[in-house]
Amino acid sequence: MSQVLHPIEKTIIKLLQSEKNLTEQQIIEKTKMSVDQIRRGIEWLRLKNLAVVVESEQFFVTLGKNGLAANKDGLPERKLVNLVANAPVPFDDLRKKLLDDMNVAIANAKKNDWITIVKNESGSIVSLKSKPDQTSEEKILDIIGQNKIPQSNIKDVQSLESLKKRPDYIITESVKTKTLSLSEQAKSIDVDAIDSDAIDVEADVPRVYAARTHPLKDTINEIREIFVSLGFSEISGNLAQPGFWNFDALFTPQDHPAREMQDTFYIKDKLASNFASKSQIKQVSASHKKGWKYPWNVDVAKKMVLRTHTTCVTINYLAENKPSESRIFSLGRVFRNEKVSYKHLVEFNQVEGIVVGKNVSLRDLMGIQTQFYKKLGLNKIKFWPTFFPYTEPSLQTMVYNEKLDKWIELFGMGIFRPEVTRPFGITRPVLAWGGGIERIAMLKYGLDDVREFYNNHLSWLRSTPKCQ
Amino acid sequence: MPVVTLDLTRLQKLVGKATKAKIIDALPFLGLDIEEQTDQYIRVEYSPNRPDYATDVGIAAGLQGLLGIKKGIAKLEIKKQKDKIFTIKTNPAVKKIRPYVLGLIAKDGKLDDEIIRQLIALQEDLHFGVGRKRKKASIGIHDLDTIQLPLLYTVKSKDHKFVPLATDKEMSVTQILETTDTGKEYSTILGNCVNIPIILDSKEDTISFPPIINSALTTVSTTTKNLLVEVTGNDSSAVVDTLSVVASALRGLGFILHDVKTDSKSSADSLKTRTILLDPKLVSQTLGIELSPVQICNMLKKCRLDAMVKGKKISCLIPSYRFDIFGPMDLVEEVALGYGIQNLSTTLPSSVSIGEKNKTTLKLDQLSQILIGLGFTEALNSSLTSKQILYDNTKRDSTKLIEVAESKSQEHTILRDSILPGLLGNLSQNIHEQYPQKLFEIGAVFSNGSPIKESICLACVDAHKDSSYTEIKSILQSLLKTDSNIECQTKTSENSMFSKGKTADIIVNSNKIGIIGELDSGVIENFKIRVPVSGFELVLSDFIL
């Protein structure tokens, strides 16, 4: 229990320690504090179990429009007997005077046995039986008068109920009253003894948000760390690349559907120059002519594209360095000319690892994959054959996702085709594997819309825990 | 990737001797991804290099091999004809428009709606892939019994008239090109030629108008028993490849194939098997498993190829429709499939290497850490963005913008030359979130060079009711000082993005490396931000990387 009391709470407790039960109104009057202050104080005390609040409901009555009129001029039946007090009066004459009250007046006067009605040839005539005393209903009208009085003050409940049946005679109002008393615990609090420097350590405080790296960046960094821990070194390259390195060097024929503008972003009015050595261009050209049987055109290879994969960086590195033993990886943005949707972005991150070595094999490639996924916490994996234009053999990894309860496709892998490596004088096998990072990050953060990563909604950035 | 729908009962009948469950389990090991599965149907995605998997007969042949029901080549027997009627003569004039043609006759088969549906799907797939949207090759399949052989592949003017497929009224070629869907879609293939290619039969009836549409006369239906296939195109190997896939599908469907001669070559001669020699060493090296030559032959046979040991090598016989096989390495993959990927255990390379991040990554990580220490949260934006955000809203000069062609997305058309506009865009998306809002981003920006220069930039924005030049300059100083002990100067300047009198160039060693200031109120308004914003942007590549 919090030992900290607000001055308002202290005042109320003190007051109630001398006077056992007080209504809200009484507390306001005695403390001379505002309604809001007292109401807040009562609520705090109630939440802390220091005060018991009993709500009671009381009814008050006032006269309505017709009630006030009847109190002044008499009830309709009183008006009637006053009219016939001296001599009998024909029915029709009475109606002219009483108007709308006529029916009620006749009915009640007859019920009270105040009048007799005699019928003759010219109509009915009303005459008085006996001059009546003040009725109990009239007494009630007198008691209420212009005031608002508790309904409980009126003892003749039956007559009050009958008046209530008359339209707009009696208005009943309900007033709720809160009566406050102290709980046993509060009765013994020594209000003056409580340390006034203490604060409510249990109360809510304003939220502050830690500045942080982007959640997707956390996944990127995690993957980078895994590569480094597996003995891979990072290489990087430009996002805008000549078609030569993005496609031609990877044995993608120049009329391949993937090279069309519907799939790849071409940069307007930009052509590459000095993008490769003469012999590299010559060899690639020869490889295309031999493999795909078409006249390869260097001008098509000059067109600048936004890289569609990081493999262009890899092949460029291999062509320039011709390593005999190597483990490298490249990570970064890649682009596809797609309609943006919950599962497609025009720009996303990809990672790709390469192992070059004398005796490296497909089984080694599968082994490295297995280690990679293990480090990501994915232990249930399997491999399926697939097709990639520049690797042979080619496999894809299927990873079992517990949350979704299904196998999902993750990274692809394969050994670079001789048609890719031979033109650059690379003779040893090149194991390659990689894939999109957002896909892994989506699984990690439980997202079903990939766009969330690039929306930069602070509500999401501030609320996503680092540990998933 | 193309998708094919398979009727499981039909498929099981075609495969024979295998349960449905066994078939479904084997599909992924043919390289077919299961997209959707019900009790009756299964939808699989196949690779574009295997158009023979566009039909269930093709997939069944693959499954038979993998499951050991039938191995080796499914031999493509094409009956040679001595009869001169089985020919397609070519008018030399057509060589300039669409030079290559091959034909094939398929007799005594049975067609039902499902088979016709599959043949159309196969045709469409071949048109798109191998045929490169009908440019390199296109197929016409006709009811042979409506045709009077021999055929003539010739040219006609655009006034030439016939009743095209799926209509009942005669149309001129011009009308077909201008009013029909396929006409409009593929007319560019014919370019501006005055004449167009036409195939006529000996009665001079129009059979086909390649690559646009067939004639209604030769429409194939479920009562058709004998077929004529013609493939035309401007790439001879694409024409052969296309015909080979159709031929193997028709063979699988039970048709008996007959040769058709053209001026250059007959289809039987075109669709011959090839031989590739495979060194068993390449197999063991690449896959990391020791297999005897006999074992390797067996694996290849399981992939519906023929193979025999020839000295130290393996001689492998490849059917014409497997034009995806370029050389020995492709055969290694076939061996792997025959062996079963699931049977390969994993190993690790024996070499040792020590990994490292590159220097740029380390530097950028360090800068991020400092900015986080200064209370800034990282944002990530696309480097392909819009003119609206990059130039219009920020009042920046757009004369040197770098644009991509034919983007499918309006918001992604221009390569960014600055990071700040994107961050302002982020602030405008977060106006209902708690302030202060402090964001940073590090990323590539693009400018004109030879041909394009890429630099790495860092930008910060600081948005709250008391945000000021002084505060953001303190951040800038602290960042550079903490990172590299760099002292920077700020020199009065003007920039349309920033308020006049509250902006400066950032100078290090008398070089301008960035800009800093309080954002212009008009710019803030353009982004619908309701609090003052200050910020800076540094070109890291110019001084720190």
> What share of residues are in beta strands of chain A?
15-25%
Strand content of chain B: 25-35%
Question: Main sheet of chain B, how many strands, which sense, barrel?
Answer: 7 strands, mixed
Order of strands, widest sheet of chain A: 8-12-13-17-16-15-14
Q: Can you summarize the main beta sheet of chain A?
A: 7 strands, mixed
The CATH C-level name of the largest domain in chain A is: Alpha Beta
Task: List low-confidence stretches of chain A.
Answer: none
Rg of chain A (CA only): 47 Å
CATH class of the largest domain in chain B: Alpha Beta
DSSP strand tally of chain A = 17
Quaternary organisation? heterodimer
Short description:
The complex is a heterodimer of chains A (468) and B (545). Chain A has 468 residues and is of the alpha+beta class. Helices cover 38% and strands 24% of the residues of chain A.
Describe the structure.
The complex is a heterodimer of chains A (468) and B (545). With 468 residues, chain A is an alpha+beta fold. Helices cover 38% and strands 24% of the residues of chain A. Chain A contains 20 helices and 17 strands. In chain A, the strands form four sheets. Chain A has a seven-stranded mixed beta sheet with strand order 8-12-13-17-16-15-14, sandwiched between helices. In chain A, strands 1-7-2-6 form a four-stranded antiparallel beta sheet. In chain A, helix 2 crosses helix 3 (35-47), helix 5 (76-83) crosses helix 7 and helix 11 crosses helix 18. The two termini of chain A are 35 Å apart. In chain A, 38% of the residues are buried. Chain B is an alpha+beta fold and 545 residues long. Chain B folds into four domains: 3-66, Phenylalanyl-tRNA Synthetase, Chain B, domain 1; 78-270, Phenylalanyl-tRNA Synthetase, Chain B, domain 3, CATH 3.50.40; 274-340, Phenylalanyl-tRNA Synthetase, Chain B, domain 1, CATH 3.30.56; 359-542, BirA Bifunctional Protein, domain 2 (2-Layer Sandwich), CATH 3.30.930. Chain B is 29% helix and 28% strand. Chain B is built from 16 helices and 29 strands. In chain B, the strands form seven sheets. In chain B, strands 20-24-25-29-28-27-26 form a seven-stranded mixed beta sheet. A six-stranded mixed beta sheet of chain B has the order 13-12-11-8-5-16, with no helix packed on it. The two termini of chain B are 41 Å apart. The mean pLDDT of chain B is 94.
